[in-house]
Amino acid sequence: MYKTSSQLKREAKDSLRGRWKDAVLLNLIPSIIQIIGMFFVALFTIGIIFLMSFFMATDFGSSSKEYSPESSESIRSDIKNEINDNLDSTDFEDLFDNTNVGFTSYGITPIISFVLSFLTIGIAFTFLDVIRKREEQPIEFKDAFRVFNGIDFVPVFLINLLMYIFKTLWSFALVIPAFVKHYSYSQSNFIYKDLAEHSDVRSMGATTFITESRSLMKGHKGRLFWIDLSFIGWYLLGFMTFGIAMLWVNPYMSATKAAFYNDLAKDRFLIPTNGEAQEDDEEWTSF
Predict the structure, then answer these.
(1) Is the pLDDT at 279 greater than 80, yes or no?
(2) What is the model's pTM?
(3) Per-residue three-class SS string for 13-73
């Protein structure tokens, strides 16, 4: 029998009780990047609302006054003069020089996303250990970088590269299949972690872990989707606090996802099976 989403959340909170400070530090880098993004999105949204309110108030005020062709011509003349002044004062050589900086930033952004994804995986691995070992498992800031080593980096890179390619190809077909595949592949990294503890994963292809994830998630994608859905309120709280609340929401969510995998896989990938298939428990849903 599998645990409900509320039970998994309770397990996540119990595993972090008295250790929230360490959990926040573990998630610090991804959370800061998320806070910056939410801060600018919130400012942009507030700015749009303010401008809409301003123009609506201006239109309402101008509609109550008698229309004057002279005033309209004056406004058009002021706008034209302002545009001409801006064009005359623009140094186009500097403009093209600054454009090169913009192109350079496009090369930096994928690198940041790449590093961030590996940090997230390292954090997820740490929370899985915390779920299983509780207080015996330390939570340290350096654990976020645990995948950046000579053993796990290449396999994890290949697994996530293939997942990205597969999901991209599915997105060309329809949105819904790509959405479903996202949940089908979601446990690939956890499966790699467990198998790597007792097997020589170098002899396994990257597709092995993706295939195992598809098999493991059969009938359980709806459970994980419901867990993601249950965090919408927390994301709204993070948005309203300009991302500050995500310092605590991210560890909570990561620990819950780790608890989900631990409940779903149990010891399936921790104990060598010698090639023998294991029977799955009853399915929660057909999705």
Answers:
(1) no
(2) 0.74
(3) HHHHCCCHHHHHHHCHHHHHHHHHHHHHHHHHHHHHHHHHHHHHHHHHHHHCCCCCHHHHH
